[in-house]
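REVIEWER CHECKLIST
Item 1: Sequence provided? yes
Item 2: Single chain? yes
Item 3: Sequence as submitted:
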Amino acid sequence: MGMMIKGVWDGEARQALDENGAFIRPDSAFRDWVSADGASGFEAEAGRYHLFASPSCPWAHRALILRKLKKLEDVVGVSIADRPKTAGWSYSRGPGEDGDGFDMIDGAFRLHQLYTANKPDYTGKVTVPTLWDRKTRAVVNNESSEIIRMFNSAFGAFTDDTYDYYPEELRADIDEVNDLVYGSFNNGTYRCGFAKSQQAYEEAFTKLFDALDQLEERLSRHRYLVGNRI
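Item 4: Structure as written out by the authors:
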């Protein structure tokens, strides 16, 4: 699968497993936040941030969806992986019209170049979606669930879409559902697919289908997983 080891791409690195052969997903490494007022250290500005994604990654889909729903296409740039994944996610060019000074490697821009620009000795996975700050040349965040929260609320000054996908009155329920969906369903499919023992597979499989039953029960009572609004 490949990953960065002390700032160098290692194409032979493999996914971590526990003692029972169960897939372990590492936590996202970059967890800073874009805020409307800049109090977080990253102020929302048009043209400052760039999203790296891939059409083959389900984690990236929700970031692309929220960017579209919130009408941020002219506010947050985007690059879609379009080169062979020979050394991680690869693109025709880097962020910005001129590539923001990044060199091409064998005719492609590698996403890991952002990670080492931010942290030269970085060790870990290189994942999409990744949100890049062109102004400070820093990876802001590579956790999809947090990137969509930023798109939902931080860029209100640059869009006429005022719909709130994380309303205050529903947040407790949303968080509860998200915990179930992430642990047993989203990540659960990976735990099934990457299991290296029958025991690990059966545990992941059982949790996955239990989660599907719980989601089905919720949807039998109302239109959406939380109430009657998106």
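Item 5: Key structural point noted by reviewer: The two ends are 35 Å apart (CA to CA).
Item 6: Recommendation: ____
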